[in-house]
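@channel anyone free to eyeball this complex?
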Amino acid sequence: MAPRFCSLLQKPPTSVGAGKKVGEYPIKKTNAIDPIRRARIPTSILPPPPFPHSPARFDLLRRLVSPMGSASENGVREHLLDVDGGEGEGAPAAVAGMPKIRVRGLSRRSEASGEEILRGVDLDVPRGVVVGVIGPSGSGKSTLLRALNRLWEPAPGAVLLDGVDICAIDVLALRRRVGMLFQLPAMFDGTVADNVRYGPQLRGKKLTDAEVQSLLSLADLDPALCSRPASELSVGQAQRVALARTLANDPEVLLLDEPTSALDPISTQNIEEAIVRLKKTRGLTTVMVSHSVKQIQRIADLVCLVVAGEVVEVLPPSGLSEAKHPMARRFLELS
Amino acid sequence: MLKPLAATAVVGMAVALSFTQRLGLEGEMLYAIARSFLQLSVIGFVLQFIFTQKSAVWILLAYLFMVTVAGYTAGQRARHVPRGKYIACVSILAGTAVTMFLLVVLSVFPFTPRYIIPVAGMMVGNAMTVTGVTMKKLREDVKMQRNVVETALALGATPRQATLQQVKRSLVIALSPVIDNAKTVGLIALPGAMTGLIMGGASPLEAIQLQIVVMNMLMGASTVSSILSTYLCWPAFFTNAFQLNDAVFSD
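replying in thread with the prediction:
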């Protein structure tokens, strides 16, 4: 099967043509066999351009595996989210044509059983987007996420941040740049303010009360919570304090490991809104692992399907029904 | 030799009670008593020999032997800690050696076998218990609160910063008995060193002086040993890239 190319244009169309609306992005899928089809993605889900003068164009390149599971023509399965750099000449080299995170051939075996957890994962995460990672339990989603900030050690050259091997970056600096939120929020001893101040304090910087309150607001929390003991918070509040605490380090990337799986629907909505707001206001690159397909469809710009330690599909949220991999289809049908 | 043999009558009572109550501890009791009798007899002859020697080498050899056995025992208690026996040995050696050095330099004790070996024995025994508990508790706490530790690591903390709460808790638990002992000394029970001196004919005031020195040195040696053991545990608990070592916390 020939590779499919799908380009998401950042710039809204200037004229209203047939089948197009102002403020919507046409997705053109070209295939040797299939006729040209069009889908629309509302402007609201796409990130702001990284630079005012360079509307970025996101090229979503995916080589789909045939239903029988054989690899594409060159014998290699590739599931890449490539960012084509902005046209503006002033764009720095780090941004132009380079994804925020690039994963190549990431593999891991279980030390206990020797079983493969990740099998040569290839993935590019564009800057300023929310990438949702979904798949069955035990498929390696969390392991993939933990490799991105070296909570487990990937092979040298397997994970690049802004084109630099993360194994070559000082691990403490890396973890400040790539923040992580876990499934269950762990609160440290002390008040909410003490928790929010934790990260900057590690490197000798003390946040003012105003800064703490501003971070709490950013995480959709009442700034008056500052002086409250962290142990008294509900799980939903604790998760948002954990988000504020992570944001206190001013990260470039946010890794979310099922951050709402232990929360009630209202708390879940609060977290989701905070994530979307952060993408819009800060252009924060986010990689979010979730079991909920509906949640991913609500907030993700791109969806990455992981099955048995492999990235088998990378699709826009609206195109999940087009997944080709049998296990991925089964997972999506049952979700 | 008649007195110790006569005292075994008390053990006979304990064995009889174990038998009648069907506790099944008779064999273990008899083995323990026989072993202690044998060990103490051998140690008695060894000490008799060392006390007659002029060379300091014998003091150091006896001291190193005690430290090695103590390190092995403490390491057994914390058997899930990689290289636990070495960590315990180094911690106990450092804690007791520093304390001993200070006591000798400050002329609290003369550097003679008659003083150094019994004093070292008390310190090493105490440091062994505290170090074993510290290491075991620290591993358990880090394992139990793995999510807290990993959250701290993910925020850019070093292993030391990430395990501060767990280290503090394990040290408090390990050192509490030593501190409580110091608080209640003489009120509940008269300590061994003091009792020995009084029974040996020394005046209670002399015995109390020595006991104060003993309490101080036990607290000093135990604190140094236990804190050092936490520092030495970090390389075993974490990788060079500040990740929790899965092999240590898997079971």
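from a first look: The radius of gyration of chain B is 21 Å.
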